[in-house]
Amino acid sequence: MLQPVPAEKLPVSRGRSGCPINMTVELLGDRWSLIVLRDIMFGGLTHFRELLNASMEGIASNILANRLAKLVEAGLLTRHDDPSHRQKVAYRLTEAAVQLVPVLAQLGAWGARWLDTSAELTVRAELLAAGGPPMWDRFMDELRATHLSGAPAPEDGVLAELTAAHHRVLAEERRREDAAAD
Fold it and tell me: HSE-up of 104 (CA within 13 Å, CB side)?
């Protein structure tokens, strides 16, 4: 079930002011909205249960349901019936959400630079920062294909590259921990 998303502007009220920074913060500035978008975008998660169970930050089910509804209403996600199960719904990014890739890449780069982060989670931010706009554009094209057109994720795409790097660093961390334990 496709839901129309306006081509020009998202269906969001002007908020406290018409300032684009304020309106963006009002839409995405709560604790969970960007995390949900991150998990869909970079984790390839599309179902409620996947998002709930994979949440490293421990999002509560009622909060997740609220944020998904908010993001659908705002035009950043669409809901689609899952043919594998009549009670399952898949969430997909809209074009407006896909265009958040550079914003999330910059947030990740800033966090990697200035905050004490874990290596296995930082590697994706570092790769996106190093890849810059050309990599972001490739990733956005990949997300458009999978989320807007329903194509399967490519095995050699940006998401696969980011995931492989994450797994490599995670394996290195485990080897170091095992060596330290011996």
Answer: 25
Quick check: 3 and 72 in contact, CB under 8 A?
yes
- Cα separation of 125 and 37, whole Å? 15
Residue the block writes with tokens 């011996």: 182
Closest by CA position to 131, among listed 101, 155, 156, 97: 101
* CA separation for the pair 172, 167 (Å, rounded): 9
- The pLDDT tens digits of the residues spanning 47-76 come to 999 999 998 899 999 999 999 999 999 999
Neighbours of 94 (CB within 10 A): 21
Contact by Cβ (8 Å): 41, 105:
no
**Residue among 41, 58, 4, 8 nearest 158 (CA):** 41
The model's pTM is 0.86
The DSSP element (H or E) to which 64 belongs, if any, is helix 61-73
- In this structure, which amino acid lies at residue 106? Q
Amino acid at 15: G
